[in-house]
Amino acid sequence: MPEIHALRRDRLRAALATLDADAALITNLVNVRYLTGLASSNAALLVPAEGDAVLATDSRYALTARRECPDLELLVERMAETVLAGLAVERGARWVAFEDHEVTVERHAALEAAARAQLAPLGRAVEELRIVKDDGEIALIARACQITATAFDESIAEIRPGVTEREFAVVIERAMISAGADKLAFDTIVASGPHGAIPHHVPGDRPFEPGDLITIDCGAKYRGYHADMTRTVALGTPAQWQRDLYGLVAAAQRAGIEAAVPGEVLGDVDMAARDLIAAAGHVEHFGHGLGHGVGLDIHEAPMLGPGRPGKLADRVPITVEPGVYLPGRGGVRIEDTLVVRSGSSAPRDVLTMTRTSTPAELLVLD
């Protein structure tokens, strides 16, 4: 899709104009992929304010770069970013904007030595461009979410007494790959019983037991784009406190989803869910933000949290994932990935829809 990537680079040039920079040096590999289509472990991109962009990568990716980026000038160089910094000066750049949030002090010194030009912070300009997704990106995220939901539906029957957290994590990860995932979006979380009070618990050797709440946080990665979904289920008849806790989190998630409309302040979306949890006496048991953007990174802008500035825009994929975590007892988290929409009867599309478990009702497994 060279045309799409060229349009993205043009949008970056518009941002460069506000910085009065002569060129942008892109070194974040995810941002390089966004602007060129090349996925690699070593690449950099020079985007001049005027003129053609130049991609540099090493010999391992040269053939792929020529195939995926036929519209770009290509340099096959191991030291991609320093070579491009020097090239920028050779071609007349006086101010080169660099991605200061990801360049180390050591690399900055190397860039200064190579460029012999003024380096200016670019900030998160490319990440800001990435917030609003085009239709192709949304389709890829939707496919990743479909793979995730399918894998969950196919794996849920394996939750039974005696199966360990680690064993079930392997089951659902294999199911995602079998369903079409290129990779996992992140390390799967399976937290049973008291481990459910740990939001990012690492699956261990604890076997599932009757009476457990079990939280499963998983996601597939498809052609670079991520899915993120969490379900909490009960093994055997749940206690009343477990039903009540699940009902509270489900209500909080509904409130958060309903608040997620174009133009809404990010912090207010978070508070729509957080206020319900606080009113139930669990303000200290919900310590993380309500959600985050999803795309080429599993966690990207915008971030939904208390007091977060900024507003939701059209075609922005986000997660809504409230949770309540009770130390020593367990917890509940429910998460869906959705796309905020404008100009339609439905202000959002929920992408992580499973057949076996709906967020509104606690799934009880015999």
The CATH topology annotation of the largest domain reads as Creatine Amidinohydrolase
SS class? alpha+beta
Strands, total number: 20
Percent of residues in helices = 25-40%
Largest sheet: 6 strands, mixed
How would you classify the quaternary structure? single chain
Q: Mean pLDDT, rounded to whole units? A: 96
CATH class of the largest domain: Alpha Beta
By CATH's scheme, which homologous superfamily of the largest domain applies?
Creatinase/methionine aminopeptidase superfamily
The total of helices stands at: 10
Radius of gyration: 23 Å
SSE succession: HEHEEHEHEHEHHHEEEEEEHHEEEEEEEE
Domain count: 2
Name given to the CATH architecture of the largest domain = Alpha-Beta Complex
User: Given the C-alpha coordinates, what overall shape results?
Assistant: elongated
Unreliable residue stretches:
none
* End-to-end C-alpha gap: 49 Å
Strand content of the residues, in percent?
Answer: 15-25%
Q: Order of strands side by side in the largest beta sheet?
A: 4-3-2-1-5-6
Entry keywords:
10 helices, alpha+beta, Creatine Amidinohydrolase, Chain A, domain 1, six-stranded mixed β-sheet, 366 residues, Creatine Amidinohydrolase, single chain, four-stranded mixed β-sheet, 36% helix
How does this structure look, described?
The protein is α+β, with helices and mostly antiparallel strands and 366 residues long. It folds into 2 domains: 2-130, Creatine Amidinohydrolase, Chain A, domain 1 (3-Layer(aba) Sandwich); 135-365, Creatinase/methionine aminopeptidase superfamily (Creatine Amidinohydrolase), CATH 3.90.230.10. Helices cover 36% and strands 22% of the residues. The protein contains 10 helices and 20 strands. A hairpin with a 7-residue loop joins strand 18 (336-340) and strand 19 (348-350).
